[in-house]
Amino acid sequence: MWKWFHKLGAPKSFYDISGRLLPWFAVPALLLIGVGVVWALLFVPEDYQQGHSVRIMYIHVPAAILAQSGYAMMAAAGGVYLIWRIKLADIAMQCAAPIGASITFLALVTGSIWGKPTWGTWWVWDARLTSTLVLFFLYLGVMALRAAMENRESAGRATAVLALVGVINLPIIKYSVDWWFTLHQPSSFTVAEKPAMPMEMWLPLLVMVFGYYAFFFTLWMMRIRVEIISREYRTDWVKRLVAS
Question: What b-and-e string marks burial along 47-59, b requiring 16 or more CB atoms within 10 Å of the CB?
Fold first, then answer.
């Protein structure tokens, strides 16, 4: 198992494997998001309280879920880099940060748009909204810290530590609606319990969540492949790749 783990961690091996995997993520991402958007906009019934504004949920909720998952994956890559010094883990952490920041920004913006007709205001310092904003700043902090340090190895260690420290914010986001009085509604989506919403509203949301994950991994692998070429441009296998 460890031999396979270290083989996958080699830049050349990952580049070869990811090239074969990319279509298996990119095509489902396009199909799932396309089907999910059409399903949510044209066929999902309006909510009896929120009306048609509930359709923003199909953009906002998957983005909010993925924002947290993306940070957890980035922090896990940072932990792998700190423990085993695997170069690919540092690359994975670096490439996840801007994608995660963009997804978190999308969650914040769509949440504000959804909040205006629901709460009557674009923004409140609600526990979940505030902790999600902190998550956005953590992503930006990882990116800024790496950009500020010239030594790649030192930057990798520093950003890994910051990413791991920031993990404490994830349970705060998840359980904030249970721990404190908050305007934000409880979780709209769960796979471990019976859905709180009708199945005709829950199923397209599930499709969108899977589509977002497939989209994330597609972008992540593409960015990692570009970064591998950038870092390994002096190696023989990259020279042969470019020559071919």
Answer: beeeeebbbbbbb
The torsion defined by the Cα of 38, 199, 60 and 145, in degrees rounded to 10, comes to -120
| pLDDT tens per residue, range 63-76 | 999 999 999 999 99
CA dihedral 62, 144, 125, 123 (to 10 degrees): -60
User: What pTM value is reported for the model?
Assistant: 0.93
Q: Give the CA distances from residue 212 to residues 33, 66, 72, 178, in Å, rounded to whole numbers and listed in that order.
A: 7, 7, 16, 26
Residue ranges of the domains in the chain? 23-43+53-243
Among residues 64, 70, 36, 67, the alpha carbon closest in space to that of 210 is found at 36
